[in-house]
Specification:
Elements (H helix, E strand, L loop, with lengths): L6 H17 L2 H9 L6 H10 L17 H11 L8 H15 L2 H12 L5 E4 L15 E5 L2 E12 L6 E7 L10 E7 L5 E7 L5 E13 L3 E2 L6 H36 L1 E2 L2 E2 L4 H27 L5 H30 L9 H14 L4 H19 L1
Parallel strand pairs: 1-4
Antiparallel strand pairs: 2-3, 3-7, 4-5, 5-8, 6-7, 9-10
Helix pairs in contact: 1-3, 1-4, 4-7, 4-8, 5-6, 5-7, 7-8, 7-9, 7-10, 8-9, 9-10, 9-11
């Protein structure tokens, strides 16, 4: 199979790499993290000018009409820069959900401004009691005249504080865990009754607890068909998971390269420590995990659009297991090989370490995806018997 990229794809990757290397330095990122907003409008507009925010937007709505492969290249390129902006949450997950599930009018209204960087839209779906299960939705939407009243709580919503609008999932029918009855509603940040309590996360980004108390929205705020949103949400989250795997690949590449360079320059007993055979073996193991992750990130990108839900989920869970294990191994080995200085805040390595740990826990940790893969494989075997 040919895994080479087209000239256009390579140009996209090169342009994004130049942007983050030139305009998103480590020192600038530290200033962004320390700011009250926790993200940079200037950097966000720079990504929009490059077309990064328009990758998953159809050409009919002012986008580039790209797909998962271009998203992979973009996320891999921005990985080492540790962007604080909601690229994954708005330009991938929310954009895909609006593109695939929104009405023609909603697409025409939202997608152009999301592509241009004028609006940030974030999906608020997962809840504390869900334990990573996408179908567990306790938040309720009840009819009140011509409107809906939303009641509930969404946990650890990444970049909710920077969003102009939230796409909030809520049950219009059924019980938590039911496949049917989940709808999605557009809720502006300044809507009465909506509380967004933000906080910094382990990796320096921002998340929030979102509480809804009698949040009134018109019926026109419902995205797509009533009660049928869960499959579209799951597909959008799967595409987001593939993009997250690509970001992890970029961070791991930078971590391995920095570690190898350090072993070449750090002197001990009159020679570079990279000449010690035991350390060479550990570096070889890091490279093995990196290349396995590269293969699985590519596989995830190629399969995240599969119409077969079971096969798509199995593939993405397998990718998350391999990449999650690699995140832990590579980050821990690099930290040990750097010694105490690897943990200092002044070294980029410590921030890569934190991001890789956060990625391993995001969208379901390694153990939960291993269980999901085993469950889906067992179900396939029973159906085939």
């Amino acid at each position: 199979m040919d895994f080479s990229f087209s000239e256009e794809q390579q140009q996209l990757q090169d342009a994004i790499s130049r942007f983050v290397q030139g305009d998103y330095s480590f020192e600038r990122r530290k200033g962004i993290i320390a700011s009250p907003e926790g993200w940079s409008q200037e950097a966000w507009q720079g990504l929009a000018d490059l077309g990064v925010l328009a990758m998953n937007v159809p050409e009919a709505h002012g986008g580039l009409g790209y797909g998962p492969i271009e998203t992979l290249l973009a996320m891999q390129s921005v990985g080492p820069a540790l962007l604080c902006e909601p690229l994954l949450e708005s330009a991938v997950i929310a954009t895909v959900l609006v593109r695939d599930f929104g009405s023609a009018e909603q697409q025409a209204e939202l997608l152009p401004v999301m592509a241009s960087g004028e609006a940030i839209v974030v999906l608020a779906h997962l809840e504390a009691a869900a334990r990573g299960e996408a179908d567990w939705v306790e938040t309720r939407a009840t009819k009140s005249g011509d409107d809906f009243l939303l009641q509930g709580h969404k946990a650890v919503v990444a970049h909710a504080g920077s969003a102009n609008e939230l796409l909030i999932s809520a049950r219009t029918d059924g019980a938590p865990g039911d496949a049917q009855g989940v709808s999605v509603f557009r809720v502006a940040r300044d809507t009465p009754g909506l509380q967004v309590k933000g906080y910094p996360t382990l990796d320096g980004r921002r998340a929030a607890e979102v509480t809804l108390r009698d949040v009134r929205v018109p019926a026109s705020a419902r995205l797509g068909a009533a009660g049928a949103a869960l499959p579209a949400i799951e597909r959008a989250l799967d595409i987001g998971l593939a993009a997250l795997c690509a970001e992890a690949l970029g961070v791991m590449e930078a971590t391995v390269n920095a570690t190898i360079e350090y072993l070449k320059t750090r002197q001990q007993f009159g020679q570079p420590i990279g000449r010690f055979q035991a350390l060479q073996h550990r570096t070889a193991d890091m490279l093995m995990h990196l290349e396995q992750s590269r293969s699985m990130a590519y596989l995830a990108a190629m399969n995240c659009n599969l119409a077969d839900d079971t096969q798509r989920r199995k593939t993405l869970s397998a990718a998350k297991v391999v990449i999650g294990n690699a995140c832990r191994f590579i980050s821990q080995q690099s930290m040990q090989l750097h010694g105490g200085m690897g943990m200092t805040d002044e070294l980029t390595l410590s921030h890569w370490f934190k991001r890789l740990m956060a990625i391993e826990l995001s969208f379901g940790d390694t153990d939960s995806h291993l269980q999901r893969f085993a469950h889906l494989s067992q179900r396939d075997a029973l159906q085939a018997a």
